[in-house]
Amino acid sequence: MSDAALPAAPAPTASLWRRTKGWAANPWGRPRFLVLITWGYMLWSIVPVLIAIQFSFNDSRSRTIWSGFSLRWYTWDPDSVMNDTSLRQGLAQSFKLAGADVLIAVPIGVLLALGLARWRGRGAGTSNFIMLFPLVTPEIVMGVSLLLVFTHIFTFVHTGTLAQILGHVTFSISYVVVIVRGRLFSIGRQYEEAAADLGAPPGVALYRVLLPLLTPAIVASAAIVFALSIDDFVISFWLSSGGGTVTVPMLIYSATRAAPLPSTNAIATIMVAVTLLTVLAGFLVFRAFTRGERTAGSGMAGDMAAFDI
After folding, report:
1. Which candidate, 45, 120, 65, 114, places its Cα nearest to that of 272?
2. Eight-class DSSP state of 67
3. How far apart are CA 193 and CA 205, in angstroms?
4. Alpha-carbon distance 163 to 288, whole Å?
5. What is the pLDDT of residues 120-134, one digit of tens each?
6. Enclosing H/E stretch for 228
């Protein structure tokens, strides 16, 4: 029998290792490990917070052994948030600093963003760099620097609530400028030019045209500034003076160095809830004002990703 009449030998099957390697390294398939890494990071960052929140509702003083659900550390226990004067004062001080920071930093940041975005003369690049300087400065350096400024140069500003507010405003303005300026660049100058062509003075064009278009960025920056300020520890710590200027992050830091109670978890849970509600409210307002700018098929996740611009 000739070789031509013999049946062809079957092709060798790929080994398990080669098939597995091809499945993992397939450049044209859907991403596999990216989803795994994303969910792993989310679990790593969220699960400890959820455990801390869980033990704020513990029925016993233990922060490691679950004894049942209770509002003891929020309401009726002598060491609860409601009955502990220091916890209530710290919460009030944190809200005071965050509220004042939003009221002062947001208007100044908006005006500064307008000036930097429209400035085309000499020194514009230097001014933009100086504006970003607080974002790249370590917070411990800024806190110590502000303390030295208030104790050796501007001695009329004493450490306490006023110094803390000025410190928070100092590092918050840059966030407002970055967010509002990004919005300015995205909408362009055509709307202002159209208003000017229709006879609107610069002030009217700013108030009636530009500021409504900047409202989503202003709301987003206010929410972010509030969240950053209410959770700040370093600057609040360095510029504090006495028990009346202690904030919640300072109380949590002091409690964890001693023998913390579940009331510490409770006050931290309140802070987390307030921060999340603030960001959620800002996002909902942002989504309402930009509903006409969303493309077809864009969902809430995409809007959340664009929340900072």
Report:
1. 45
2. -
3. 9
4. 36
5. 767 667 777 777 788
6. helix 211-230
Closest to 173 in 3D by CA, of 133, 231, 121? 133
The per-type count for the chain, helices as H runs and strands as E runs, is 13, 0
Other Cβ atoms closer than 10 A to 208 = 11
What is the rounded distance in angstroms from the CA atom of residue 109 to the CA atom of residue 224? 13
Q: How much is the pTM?
A: 0.82
Taking the C-alpha atoms of residue 124 and residue 40, their distance in angstroms, rounded to an integer, is: 43
Query: Hey, how many other C-beta atoms are within 10 angstroms of the C-beta on 113?
Result: 25
Tokens standing for residue 233: 């520890």
CA-derived radius of gyration, the chain: 27
**Residue owning tokens 């965050």:** 98
pLDDT in tens, 247-268: 999 998 888 777 788 999 999 9
| 129-138 long-range contacts, CB within 8 A, separation 24+ | 131/173, 131/174, 131/177, 132/174, 132/178, 133/174, 134/170, 134/171, 134/173, 134/174, 135/174, 135/175, 135/178
Q: Which residues lie closer than 8 Å to 125 by C-beta, 6 or more apart?
A: none
CATH 1.10.3720.10 assigned to domain 85-292+299-305? The reply is: yes
Question: Taking a C-beta distance cutoff of 8 angstroms, is the pair 291, 75 a contact?
Answer: no
* C-alpha 29 chain-centroid distance: 34
**Token output for 126:** 């230097």
CA–CA separation, 292 vs 309, rounded Å?
A: 15
Domain residue extents for the chain = 30-70, 85-292+299-305
